[in-house]
């Protein structure tokens, strides 16, 4: 029996990874991976007159009378609403966390809205109300903002831009370049929940139980950590959003020219997240989080910091997941449950685009 030949048009072929030699922006350039880093280092920093330096979520500025931290972020998540939250509280909490991971206590936020013509006012009102409630709960007011409306098809419903200002207490010096050999690596709780929550709604997948975003403000947790062991105990903080845990530890390893050794068996991954990632072919260590942080802590203070984290509502599941080593500077490796060791590296782009 003969078969009818199938006609294949090479123009329909799709490369599974974005090509790095391109003259156009790719979706992967916004994913927090290698392409994002190259875009920033090779295009934006030279244009702004800066040199490539340690990757930070916020800048610490000296005012003459003290130090402030300044950050800005934009949120383009789809869908706008997902289990446990929406783009509004995500924007508030994400901006607060960028400040917190510089050791700053936030004092004010801004909010800018780019609204697509035709968006229902009820939807916009629900987002704004959620932002107000999240800011009030965190004790960080939204003090100014801006609104723009673009034509239909110009904004995919709603984009939110935020900025935040915080005060850095005396003696606090937190940054990715400060990680040192011997530092203990601690994560504040279960990872991967936010990315899986987004995917469950976006793709209409039922995992048997609802996975909710972990979105939460972390400035009070950071304050408790610093109070427990002194401001010099915590060397580095990072909230593992785009690119997940892997992107955070690799960026820190590179910034400090140290090696990071993770223990995969110690990393808290909820069973629901592990099952969902297995089903979707994703690595939970590279799935985004919005209410967790990774801390690099001086070894002599690690127990005190871990105890303070576990005593705080936002850190009850905190766990030691690795150490900083002198070997393989600029690289992160993971010891698997089978006793082998593998190199962990960031994706070129992002496993799950538009999750924040």
TrEMBL record:
Gene3D superfamilies: PurM-like C-terminal domain (3.90.650.10), PurM-like, N-terminal domain (3.30.1330.10). Residues 180-328 form the PurM-like C-terminal domain. Residues 56-168 form the PurM-like N-terminal domain. Pfam families: AIRS, AIRS_C. It comes from the Bacteria. CDD domains: HypE. One of its GO terms (biological process) is protein maturation. Belongs to the HypE family. NCBIfam families: hypE. This is Hydrogenase expression/formation protein HypE. The gene is hypE_2.
